[in-house]
Amino acid sequence: MYKFRIWFKNLKFRNKITLTCLVVSLVPIIMLGSFSYLQIRNLLINREKEVLVESLSQAHNSLEHMTASYCDVMSYIIWDNNLTIALNSSYNNNFEMYLAYKEVIDPLFSTVRSLHNEIEAITVYSNNNINPHGNILRPLSDIEDSNWFNPILDTTVPHFIVSSDKHQLAIICQLLDSTRQYTNIIKMSINYTETFAPLSTLFDNSYGIVIIDNDGNPVYEYENFYDKEAVYSMSHNQLLSKLNEGSLDKDYVFEVKYLPTSNWTVYLYRPISTVSAAASQITITIFFIIIICILFLLFASYSLSKVIVRPLEELTDNMEQVESGNLSVTVTQESTDEIGILIQRFGYMVNRIKYMIDEVYKSKILQQEYEMKALQAQISPHFFYNSLSLINSKAILAGHEDISHMAQFLSSFYRTTLNKGKNTILVKDEFKNVTSYIQIQLMMHSYTFDVSYDIDDDILNYTMLNLLLQPLVENAIVHGIDHKESVGHGLLTIIGKQSNNNLVFTITDNGCGITTHVLESILTTKTKGYGIQNVHHRVQLYYGKEYGLSYESKLRKGTIVCLTIPKNISC
Fold first, then answer.
1. Sign of torsion, CA 37 39 42 44?
2. Phi, psi (degrees; rounded to nearest 5) at 51
3. Which domain of life is it from (predicted)?
């Protein structure tokens, strides 16, 4: 890459523009060509899907009609009252049995077979004492070992079965008999090849079809692929596996149909590559057009490079300097054409950016510092006078110990608040300031609320902005605990921990809570004093937008405010 950059840098500017324009222009052309190819390919695939749907629908209707006709034939047989009587009667001699064969069973089965040539045989399996009669009447013991025997005893609905070698299709059903004196199973053997013959002529080649019964066993499988397409051949288990994994549509266009009469599911699939092969001629055409466009672009880029030379190079150099952070760049251009105007506007933009940084951003920081210093010099007189009044009252009503404590707390509070005019303070001194303020508030409130501290000793020697925690504590006491409506003592909890590279301070009260409307705007609402919005804005201005305050509150439950700032050991 470095050698390429050196080679590109040493090129003549005219050749550089030619190469750049050529490369940039190639991208949309190639994208357009690729898009066109993909669209045409998708159209062919969608068309193939439509053909598959139509073909499968025809095959589905044919199979459904055929299986329904078989079920109708079976219903005709099992609803025949004479057959029911013949199979459930008790016979005293062979002559009576002969009459049942001749007058009832043989005529019925012969009529059915003559009307439906695809029916190869009809057999009744019975546990009656009637003698066997060739393949027409057999003892029930012949089929008791079959895997379909027990399930068929629980229903009178026709059931399709396929032999294990897939050479014979049969429909079986139990003869309807309200007396349940004997068990009679009707089995109608159907020509397997003739039934599924239409499925082998759906397409000339390159397709496969699988029929699976309700238990997942294959009923019919057929594939017709060229030798080179043999890789697309798959068994019914592979098909179901790919279908469950959702990977079947990666290599195949497929459709699925359900046959309600037989409880079969038909899967018809064709390889996508077969469909895509039809787009090969289109691909060659698109490639030829792209080559022509590239030759035209080469000529146009070379012509353009003769016109645009030096001004853009100077502008690029100036932009690189601004990008590196040097805002002292002076951009000049005497021409009044579009490039000259562009360079002049660029110079104006750089000057405006420099002005905004020097005059606006820096002045905002200074203004915030001045506001903080003014705040430190003008601590609320109301709080100060109330504290002095309380000291005076304690001096009259109590001993010198309370006066001493109050004086010490006030001294510590104002000393850490003013902080010798510095904007930053150690975490331990900030907590000292907050502790002094809370002790004064406890005395002013006659110790009507409790305070809990959980401060990590490892954070005490980090530094932070001065006077961040005191306004949060004051807010918790004045607007939370003082308005507590629930039963019990007020509780103020102060927690200081470290999380990764941040310091996290949490102030919790069990006061009156904050309404949802106020909570949504608490960090943006301006107040008359040094309020929450000022603290949040000051933190974000100093540390960055990812730091500041976050609030959680429930009415009559309390409020939690969390202050997050980065770790800082400089002071």
1. negative
2. -65, -40
3. Bacteria
φ/ψ (deg, to 5) at 158: -60, 140
Q: What's the CA gap between 305 and 18, in Å, rounded?
A: 6
User: Would you say residue 224 has pLDDT above 50?
Assistant: yes
When pLDDT is averaged across residues 438-445 and rounded to a whole number, the result is 85
* Chain-centroid distance, C-alpha 58: 39
Strand order in the sheet with 159-162: 137-139, 119-126, 184-191, 168-174, 159-162
CA distance linking residue 118 with residue 199, whole number of Å: 16
- Report the chain's C-alpha Rg in angstroms: 47
Collapsing DSSP to helix, strand or coil, 118 comes out as coil
Identity of residue 383? F
Q: Decide the pairing of beta strands 184-191 and 168-174.
A: antiparallel
Amino acid at 228: K
This model's pTM is above 0.85: no
Angle, alpha carbons 328-332-338 (nearest 5°):
125
Contacts of 10 (CB under 8 A, 6+ apart): none
84 vs 284, more confident: 84
Dihedral sign for Cα 186, 189, 190, 196, please: positive
The answer to whether residues 170 and 160 touch, using CB atoms and an 8 Å cutoff, is yes
Token output for 553 = 């509150």
**457 and 428 Cβ atoms separated by less than 8 Å:** no
Beta strands 137-139; 119-126: pairing state? parallel
Report the sign of the C-alpha dihedral through residues 153, 159, 165, 168, in that order: positive
Where does 116-235 have alpha helices with state H? Answer: 149-153, 192-196
Q: Where are the beta strands (DSSP E) in 287-404?
A: none
Residue 374 pLDDT > 50, yes or no? no
